[in-house]
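Posting this for the archive.
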Amino acid sequence: MSQATKAGLEKIFMENWRREIQAAELYELSAKNEGDERRRDIFLKLANLEYKHAQMWAEKLEELGIDNTSLKKPTLDNDNMSQLSSAQILSNIESIETQNANWYASLRNIVDDEDVLRIIDEIDEDEKTHESLDDILHAQKKPVKHRLHSLWGEERWHRRASGGWVGDAIYGVNDGLGAIFGIIAGVAGFAHNDQTILISGFFGALASTLSMGAGAWLAAKSENELLDSELSHERREIQDDPEHELEELKLLYELKGLSPEESNRIATQVSKDPETFLTTMAQEELGIHEASQSNPWSSALFGSLSTLVGAIVPLVPFFFLHGLVAIVVAAAVSILAHFVVGALKSIITVRGWFVSGLEMTLVGIIVGVVSYGFGEIGSRLLGG
């Protein structure tokens, strides 16, 4: 049974239907203004997806006895919209999609009807197809692409900014590779001795692995402690001044489009259970969800192992080759690895894989050249 009354559910379903229709019509407008046939087809598919979502809510309204033919579509100011550029229309879509994502997240605290939650889950899954829009944005300005990537990628699904364990792994490989490549380049410039290079690189890899693991563990633990502190502070506020927190929740629901009466009724219902009240306030006011906390041990594991993997790469040639050949092969392998790692970073960023890989490659070359140069200088100074 839903926490909302029949009248409240009617308003909620009507608002859901209106939001989906509005998004669908914006996608249709984007398709109408799009000259490229392939991109136009994608916009139309997304419009149909939004219409499908709207139909779900129309059917829920029908279950409440509302005649679907009486539903009035929101109207767009077509004269004004026709003057907007494609980037500006996409910006409007972004704004609406962001509001809709937040709206549906809030509904999970308002209703507990399994069928309604199932529809929201289905919509969430469907919305992931919006990532396909990345293919049509290459010709758009970077700020628009960046915003849409945030909307339909990382932010929409509440993934950690680092990309979760993927981020821990990629950045671990990055750190291990960069640090050990710099060490062996500097030692090679100073000593020109395979054994010295290998031993220095090995202990450098060991130190980097342990340091990264400990750092990842402490970072995740500190982040969790900060979230716990926020929750503890919110709990105290609820205990010390529940009326104030209740008023805040009412206003938050009003900002989401509910009437003052409905906001008051729902907020009052939520506040009756202290834990539900805390969970709701944490999500609505602080943006803290159940998935916000990370596992320090998994962060340490992925961070340390990936660092070890990255650190071993520059050392491998010295197990099979010797002298200048080993140094040259190690440099070539390391530079190639830098490009691969940079390209993989595009998984958790909004940059293109080639640009990201090239940037990482240039960084690796600079690190190697500078480290080798200082090694040579140190060798000559001490040798002199």
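Residues 132-163 have pLDDT under 50 and may be disordered. DSSP finds 15 helices and no strands in the chain.
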